[in-house]
Amino acid sequence: MSTATLTIDLSAIEANWRKLNALTDGETAAVAKADAYGLGVDRVAPALAHTGARQFFVAVAEEGAALREILGPEVQISVFSGHMEGDTALLRDARLIPMINSVDQMVRHVETLPGHAFGLQLDTGMNRLGMEDAEWQALREIALAQSPTLIMSHLACADEPRHPMNAQQLACFVQMTQDVTAPRSLAATGGVLLGPDFHFDLTRPGIGLYGGLPHVDALPVVTLDIPVIQTRDVAAGETVGYANTWTAATPSVIATLSAGYADGLIRAMGPNATLHAGEVAVPVVGRVSMDLIGVDITALDQLPETLQLIGDHQSVDTVAGFAGTIGYEVLTSLGARYNRVYRT
Ligand SMILES: *Cc1c(COP(=O)(O)O)cnc(C)c1O
Asked: What's the predicted TM-score (pTM) here?
């Protein structure tokens, strides 16, 4: 088989949820947007529910409806994008809780789904989603009278603990939610690690469940082993791959592996990336193709059957670094072609 194997450790995801849950006194939700960060929400969400998560967050209503099918009626599922036109039937039928982001959304919600649960999202400086202070002041009394399930905001710089934006957004959130009795939530993974001032009633980790930074104590979740399809000897002066970007300086052994940018091996990582054969790191050579990459395995004593891109020797964040990106993008780029194996 030339299909690469992506192994996803569900017990590690569960352990990571419990680790983050142990850091706070409040409730810990689980963020499962984008197919649980690319890892397969149909397998990941039941594992999280099994270990104790009772609240889930997704980005859009369609993801919420799919998650409701997977998890059944017991859990609470909230939607960050709120109540958009066209969402009404999904929100109603799947009993999803929209996080209302604007007066327009609030009007739509009370007109189309009177009495249906909702939360409120406030903007405390990120300028992405949520109501700013003036809009919030106009809506505050009416919205609070209808018992929102949650009042939330999101931190822009939580992965940098010393960034002044964190304290600024915290102060803004405290000020905007003074005298509010509804449960409050400010922290994603980074915010959990900033300490108790940021925890409020509910935390919303995503990446920290899936083994990515800034959750430094996370157990690794993903292993990616890629089969070698062919090996060849190249002489000094020969080139490898599209556009001849790599030239052998000495006689070399090149392995051609069965994964490429269509599988989430971000093309920009090419010249910086390594894979592992056991303890030995071997470099990618030449351009990443759609379905293939070349690796210089001259240093190995034996021809390998597979090489490992993500695993014990290289975390998702290490691999992200090869491409100048973040672990979140590596995970959510993982392709549909892999043979996915779930460990429980
Ligand atoms: C994605 C997201 C989260 C989870 O963030 P992580 O950094 O992955 O923990 C929490 N809240 C909101 C609003 C988000 O968009």
From this structure: 0.96
